[in-house]
Amino acid sequence: MSDKENTPESVPPRRPIRSFVLRTGRTTVGQARALESLGPQYLVPYSPQPADLAALFGREAPTVLEIGFGMGEATAHIAGLMPGKNFLCCEVHTPGVGALLKRIGELGLTNIRVVQHDAVEVLDHMLAPGALAGVHIFFPDPWHKARHNKRRLVQPHFIAKLLPRLASGGYIHCATDWEPYAQQMLEVLSAEPALENTAAGFAERPAYRPLTKFENRGLRLGHGVWDVVFRKR
């Protein structure tokens, strides 16, 4: 092996944590209209500086961060159930952002703001210490193949990033339909001394998290779904 091959410059850099996987998708007419009409009110541009959450939402209220909301079905449902909380929601895919904005308009929701950006960078730069009352991570990409497990979002180094932004008493709620990932979530969160499990192992699905049509279909086929809920001491 040559000297050049041994130099630090030749070592591939560690893959950064990302909260998303790039996918293709077509934006519908309704989603495009929602982006145009409601985007200026509910979309928050990414900034490398801490955001003034009270200014963004127009009020002081506990803020929940949602990482990767898909098409926004559960997000809109939960925000409607909890009008006293603010929901800062991250998603990179335009069809999903448009779908959530459309739901916001249909339901008249005012307590949601959307950042169309990688949630890890939002966490790193836009959120001040103790800013969050809760974090929702519902059905993140499971990275089924063993060689890809390191790409999963819920890992010790990600939780280390998240914890300083979580207020004392704040919670982390994860859900997945892939049992090996559920076990990993439980192990990672259990290993963090600053967190305590709200259940003896996996949690019952909290009443506020709805069953989506995809989840219902999976349950009919005999697939399991696991919830993990931990609270910061």
Provide the descriptors you would attach to this structure in a database record.
single chain; 233 residues; alpha/beta; globular
Descriptive report:
With 233 residues, the chain is of the alpha/beta class. The chain has one domain: Rossmann fold (3-Layer(aba) Sandwich), CATH 3.40.50. Helices cover 34% and strands 18% of the residues. It has helices spanning 3-6, 29-42, 53-57, 73-81, 94-107, 119-125, 156-162, 179-190, 213-220; strands at 63-67, 86-90, 112-115, 132-138, 166-176, 195-197, 226-232. Strands 3-2-1-4-5-7-6 form a 7-stranded mixed beta sheet, with helices on both faces. Strand 4, helix 7 and strand 5 (166-176) form a beta-alpha-beta unit. The radius of gyration is 18 Å and the shape is globular.
Sheet-strand content, in percent, reads 15-25%
Overall 3D form: globular
Distance between the termini: 51 Å
As for the CATH topology, it is Rossmann fold
State Rg: 18 Å
Percent helix: 25-40%
Oligomeric state of the chains?
single chain
Indicate the mean pLDDT: 91
Structural class: alpha/beta
Summary?
The protein contains 9 helices and 7 strands. The chain is of the alpha/beta class.
Secondary structure layout:
Elements: H1 3-6, H2 29-42, H3 53-57, E1 63-67, H4 73-81, E2 86-90, H5 94-107, E3 112-115, H6 119-125, E4 132-138, H7 156-162, E5 166-176, H8 179-190, E6 195-197, H9 213-220, E7 226-232
Parallel strand pairs: 1-2, 1-4, 2-3, 4-5
Antiparallel strand pairs: 5-7, 6-7
Helix pairs in contact: 2-5, 4-5
